[in-house]
Amino acid sequence: QKEVEQDPGPLSVPEGAIVSLNCTYSNSAFQYFMWYRQYSRKGPELLMYTYSSGNKEDGRFTAQVDKSSKYISLFIRDSQPSDSATYLCAAHSGGSNYKLTFGKGTLLTVNP
Amino acid sequence: GAVVSQHPSRVICKSGTSVKIECRSLDFQATTMFWYRQFPKQSLMLMATSNEGSKATYEQGVEKDKFLINHASLTLSTLTVTSAHPEDSSFYICSASRLTGGDEQYFGPGTRLTVT
Predict the structure, then answer these.
(1) Which residues 61-100 of chain B have a CB within 8 Å of chain A?
(2) A6 to chain B, minimum CA–CA distance in Å?
(3) From CA B20, how far away is CA A2, in angstroms rounded?
(4) pLDDT tens digits for A1-14?
(5) By the number of CB atoms within 10 A of the CB, which of B17, B55, B75, B92 ranks highest?
């Protein structure tokens, strides 16, 4: 079992829709959780960074972490065509080990 | 702030030759840099972690003699793919962080390597 599982999609939604992206993880030591956005043939861009369980909101983006169920989510409100990209979840356990473990990424297309 | 560049953005080389990829932190000092490889429709796989002035730490299954990493300054790390083969063709991405050991990582735009 991979440490971070993510449905690769693809996911296609109309403009303005609420998008829900999800990952599960198996390593109980993970404490820090991230969502990255990656456009085609580009490097990942950090969107959200959260520690432990809870919610974090930044504009149209909300990240949720539920450590009890080892479930992490990213919600995108009022989705735009420019949100079309691959979204990668990632986690690390902190301490002296900051190695990121990535999910496979979900390809999202927002149709105008 | 926190901009990371990579050079070249894409490179084509013949089998058996070596290729060097540069990763630079443009507006901050990076004590730690990471090198990843990404195959099409796959996730990023960490290859190695390097701290400035120290030898790189390679992930299991990554040949250190094939993928030479040098982190000689706080703004530059290089990855040299030696004796490249077609199966080394991939998207190589570096990231950099300010603190020793990691924390928030800022990614470069990636280098597309094609070995013919």
Answers:
(1) 91, 93, 95, 97
(2) 10
(3) 31
(4) 678 999 888 999 99
(5) B92
